[in-house]
Amino acid sequence: MKGTLRWTTFAAPSRFYALAGALNPWLWALAVLLALAGLYVGFLVAPTDATQGDSYRIIFIHVPAAWMSMVLYVAMAFWAAVGWMLNARMASMLARALAPTGALFTFLALWTGSFWGKPAWGTWWVWDARLTSELILLFLYLGYIALVSSIDDVVRGDKAGAVLAIVGVINVPIIYFSVRWWNTLHQGATISMTAAPKMAHTMLLAMLLMTLAFWAYAFAVVFTRAQALALERERDTDWVRALATKR
Amino acid sequence: MSSAFAAVYARDLRLALRRRVEALLPVVFFVVAVSLFPLGVGPEPQTLRQIAAGVVWVCALLASMLSVASLYAQDFNDGSLEQMMISGHAGTVIAAAKASAHWTVTGAPLVVAAPLIGLLLDVTSQSLLTLVLSLLLGTPILSLLGGMGAALTIGLRGAGVLLILLILPLSIPALIFGAGAVAAVDSGVSAAGHFSLLGALLIVTALVAPPATGLALRIALE
Amino acid sequence: MWASWSDFWHMGGYGLYVWGAYAVCLAVMLGEPWLARRQRERALRAQTE
Predict the structure, then answer these.
(1) What's this model's pTM, rounded to 2 decimal places?
(2) In contact, B69 and B103? CB cutoff 8 Å
(3) For the complex shown, is ipTM > 0.95?
């Protein structure tokens, strides 16, 4: 088992499980440290904004959440495609594991965006291009989750999910473009979240640190869920039995 | 290849004609759904005119989605879908034929019904023409996307609602460009940009949806 | 930077919004790993049954 490390080494669920188990403590530690650093800079170093006061500090979780929601969707489509094309079930499990986390990040982007918008623009919801696109992205995530959960046959579920995710990924730029188009046409509702405060270096640093923290968090929680899926799917195999009796 | 297309297309039309009432249900739903809006929003002509294009488009979208679930369900249940797939014809061709049949039976009647609905909502004749044209380009997109959704959800519990959840987000660009075309004309601007985008969207969908549907069919039948 | 703790919580008048956003974020980021871990534990337990 120990020997050359190949691209396909961790395609085996048992080895992925071990790898995830080894990495997770470090990922959690990294997430916490980066978050503390980011929040320190964001709240104790970055200055108050001239126009938005202190409400802008929501940006330190809003923007990272939005980025993660998009990155995880692409990653989900990627792993689903890999799982389908290379017949690698661990890749398909990884895709399934990514979906709930991506959906939650999308929800957080919407929630924090709403809380940021209320003091800035007076309403809890604004149909600006970014928030609207995030809302549609949430629908795409929910659709994927609904589809793969409705299919009892896991192999069919993996493949159907892959088709949907790939079609979704192709659509995301189209959807974003069309929403931007729609938003600029309806001048009355053009309140832009992108009118963020001119970013001082400290603000950018805080945002970067929080983004990295969210990355580490996402890896850790997705790995945990992927481990769970591996245990469920590989039930009654030797390695799962060994793990179960060891507890 | 074209004979397989023609055969599947003709078959679907014949089946739809045998159940004319069922085939017209989407159009009836369309009219009923549109009529709900004045009842809910108030009969003010000005308000209705403003929301007309969006309302007609959304109801057309929903009507299209409601009828697409049965596109593959019946053939799946009686085994003829499997026969079609193993007969050696590309899933892409079957998907394209079925989407075309769906449009003929459901989409085209929606386009024809749209002017009548437009009158209910007090739409100007210029906007009406734009609305009809936008639906003419848009309903095929909906049939193509719907076919893909139907193929993904064959045989699943709650397939109808699931299908709608899957396809509605993907239909949003068509909705934006289609209804936007009418809004543009209403405000005196040219809708050429919208129509170009809608046309491009139709082409892209026509190229991508049938192969994706074919793949989904194979996955469902494995 | 902040004159006092109460200034910090007050967030220049935007306390409700800032902490409302951060609180939900924290809740999600505590709840989600907990749920994932629970799913993993359940899967292991299911194996021994």
Answers:
(1) 0.92
(2) no
(3) no
